[in-house]
Amino acid sequence: MLIKEKDNRLFLNHGPIDIVLEAFGKDKPLAYEKAKKYFSTLLNELVLDMDLLKKEVVPHRHFNNKISQSMQNATEKFYPDFITPMAAVAGSVADNILNVLVKDTKLEKAYVNNGGDVSFYLTENQTVKSSLASIPNIIAEIDYKDKSRGIATSGWRGRSFSLGIADSVTVLADNAAMADAAATMIANSVNIKNHPSIIKKPAEEIYEDSDLKNLMVTVEVGDLKQSEIEDALRNGNEVGKTYLENGLINSALIELHNCFCIVQKESTNLNFINKSSLKKINYV
Amino acid sequence: MLTQEKIRCDACPVMCFIADGKSGACDRYANENGEIIRLDPLVILNNQIEKGEQVKPFLKADWNGETTENDNTFITAIGSGTTYPDYKPAPFIFNSKVDGADFITVVTEAIFSYCGVKIKIDTDRHLGSERAIVRHKGEAIGHVMTSEYGSQMLSLGGVDHLTGGTKVEGRVTCEALMNLCNKEAIELSIDEGLTVIVQAGKPPIIEGIEETKMRVGCGSATIGMFASQWFGLVDEVVVVDDHITGVVSEHQAGKVLDWKSTGISVKGRRSTPGRYFQVANPGTGWGGTDIQDPLTILGTWNEKKGAVPGLTILMVSTTGENYSYYELDNELIPKKKKLPANLKSSVELIKENCEPALCTVMFVGGAGGSLRSGVTKNPIQLTKSVKNNETNITCGGAKTYIWPGGGITLMVDVHEMPDNSFGYVPTPAIVAPLEFTIDRNKYKSIGGHTTKIRSKKDIIENGGEYGNKKSFLS
Asked: CA A103, A107, A108, A112: dihedral to nearest 10 degrees?
C-alpha cells in the first residue's frame, strides 16, 4: 500500500486501485487524514464481497459494505441486461472516498480520480474541467449548476475489458459509479458482429479471475470501413439515448477510430468542448 | 502436455490467481515461470541526471526515436525484472562502447531478503542509547549503533527483522527500508529515546524540530581551532556545548599562547583543564543545552585569580548561532555589550565551518549469491572479477562500495540513485536494481552469457520479455 501526499494532492495505491485526489478549502488537511484512514482498510473489506460482486447483478441485493452497495445500486439499473457489479467498482471506490472527504468538512471543491473514473464535489461558482486522454482536444466541463458529479471512461483500449470495439466511451452521470457502469455498457454495445478485423478472446484466458468468465472480449481492432464505423457508433448512440431518457446518465461521448458522437439532451449545456480534428457524427 | 503453473499473488488482498506469463489485476505483478515479478518499466539513466534533469521511466511510446549506441545513456536495472532464482541469464545483457572499448553490462533487479540500511543522522542530540531498539509503526526494525563525530548511527533491517521475527515485523521492516531507500520521509521512534523523522538527503526532524547545522566540533575542539584568532582581541572565551564546554584561558590551546587566567568559574563537572561536562541539561537552547542565558553556567569571578573590572568575555555556541559579549563592571558582574566587529568575524567563521545537518541512508545488500548465475555460468569467477576491480557494480547507475572479505557485499548511497528505484516483494524482501559492467573479453573469460548479448538500441526499441499490453477488471 502506498499513501503519499505530494504537490497538494494525495496519492493512494493498493493493489489495482490507483487514486489521485485533491481537495480545496480550509479543511483540506482534515479531509486528507480522513481519506487516508478510510483507504487503509478499504480494499481488505471490499474483497470480502468479491465473490458476489463478480456474479451477474440481481436486483435488490443488500451489502453492508458501502462500496459494494454503490456497485449494486449502479449496476442493478441495467438488469436484465448482462452486467456484474464489478462494472462500477472504480467509480464506486471514487464516490465513497469523496463522501469521506466532504463529510463534516468545509471544502470548496474536491475530486477523486480513480484511474480515470472521477467523482467530484463542487460548491457555488466552482467548475471542473477534464481533458479526455483518448481525444486530446476535447474538454468536459462541469459547473456547480450541472447535475453531473461523476465522469468515467471505458473502452477496449483501457484497463478494463470490453465486449465492444469503442476506443473510448466517456460518460457524465450524477455519480462516478453510474458513469462507470454506463460507460461499460455503452462501450459493450458499440460492436460489429463477426468482423474479420476484430479479434476477441475469452476474458478468463487473459485474466484468470475475470468476472466476465468466458465472454469474448476485444483484444484487437483492425481497419474498418467508414460505413461500419458509423453503424457501430450508431448502436452505441441508441443505447446511450435510452440511458439518457431513463435518467441514468447526463452526457456521453463515444469514440471509434476517426469518428465520435455525443449523446445529451438538447436542453443541457454542451459539456464537451470540441477542438479536435476527429469527425463528429450527428445521429438524428 | 505440461500444465501451466498458476500461482496466487499475495501482494495485495485481491489475491489474483495468475497463470504463467500473465499479470494480475494491478498490472504490476506477473507470473514469470512460477515466480511473482514486478513489471515497472526500465529506466534509462542519462548522464543528464548529473545536471539535475529528471529521469524518465522507460516506455517505448515515449522514445523520441534517437538511437543511443554512441551517447552516454546508461540503461539501469530499475524495473528490469529478474530471472532470479532461476539459474538463467539476467533480463538484459547489452554491449556498449566506452572510450572505444567494448563493454558488457548485465542488468537485473535483485531480491534482497537479508539487506539493511545504515543511517547517519547529523545531530548531537541524544536520540537513544547504544543498542536501543528502533521502531517504525510500533515494530522493531533495527537498533541504535554508535554516536560518531557529531552524528548518530542507526542500523535497520537485516535478516533477523525481515524474516526472523513476526510476519508484521517483517512487513513493516520491508516497508520502512523501501521508503527510506526511495528517499521518502519515515518516522522512527527509539525505545527510551526520541522520535526522529529521517529522509535521505534532508535534515533530521527530531521531536518535531528540524536540525539545521552540525556543530563545528565540541566546545573544546572549537577552542582548539580558534584560540589563536581570539588571542589579543578578548580576555576570555567560553564555547557553550552540551557535551564539552570549553574555556580558553584554562584550555591547553590557551596555555600554549600564554593566555592570562581570568578568575572565571564554570558550573558543571570539570574534565581536564578548560573542559567541562554537563554545564546544563540537553535541550534546544545554546549549543544543544537547555539554556537561554549563557551567564547561568558561570559562577562568581575570582579577583585573586585574575578577574578585573573591564575584563572582556565572549560566549558563543558550537554552531556560532548564539553569541554574547560582556565586560566585567566594578563589582565584577558581567554586563552585556555590543560585540566588537573584529570578534564578530570569528563568530561568523564558526558558523561558516558548520555544515548542514543531513540524514544519509546507505543501502547494504549482498550480490554474491545465486543471483550471480544471471551474469555468468561460473559464479565464483564473477566474485573474483569484482574483487579485482574488473567488474564494476552500480545500483541504478550509482557507484557502489564493495566490502572487502567474502561475498559481494555492496553499499550504496540511495541519494545518488534515481527516485523510486526500490521495490519489494511480499516475501518480504527489497527489490533493487543492479548493473554489472565488464570488458567484453573479460566477460567471456569469466563464463558470461555471451550469446545473450544484445545491442542497446535493440533493448530500448524492443524492451524485455515482459510489459505487453494488459487490461483487467471489468
From this structure: -60
Asked if A155 and A219 touch (Cβ cutoff 8 Å), the reply is: no
Q: Which CATH superfamily is domain A2-280 in?
A: ApbE-like domains (3.10.520.10)
Interchain proximity A206–B22, CB inside 8 Å: yes
Residue of A nearest to B424 (CA): A1
In a domain, residue B339? The reply is yes
Per residue in B1-26, pLDDT (tens digit) is 344 578 888 778 788 888 887 888 87
Q: What is the rounded CA–CA span in Å between residue B363 and residue B412? A: 5
Residue B240 belongs to a domain: yes
Model confidence at B450, in pLDDT bands (50, 70, 90)?
confident
User: Strand B92-98 to strand B101-112: parallel, antiparallel, or no bridges (unpaired)?
Assistant: antiparallel
Return the residue of A nearest to B11 by Cα: A15
What total of structural domains would you count in chain B? 1
Among candidate residues A114, A86, A97, the one with its CA nearest the CA of residue A39: A97
| Domain range summary for chain A, segments of one domain joined by + | 2-280
ipTM (interface pTM): 0.77
What is the Cα–Cα distance from A67 to A45, expressed in whole angstroms?
Answer: 9
Which structural domain range is residue B307 located in?
219-352
Nearest CA in chain A to B175: A1
Establish if B383 belongs to a structural domain.
no
Residue B195 lies in a domain: no
Going by their DSSP bridges, the two strands B429-439 and B392-395 should be labelled as antiparallel
Closest CA of chain A from B401, distance in Å? 30
A159 contacts in chain B (CB < 8 Å) = 27, 471-473
- DSSP 8-class letter at B84: T
- Model confidence over A109-139: pLDDT tens digits? 999 999 889 999 999 989 887 766 556 566 7
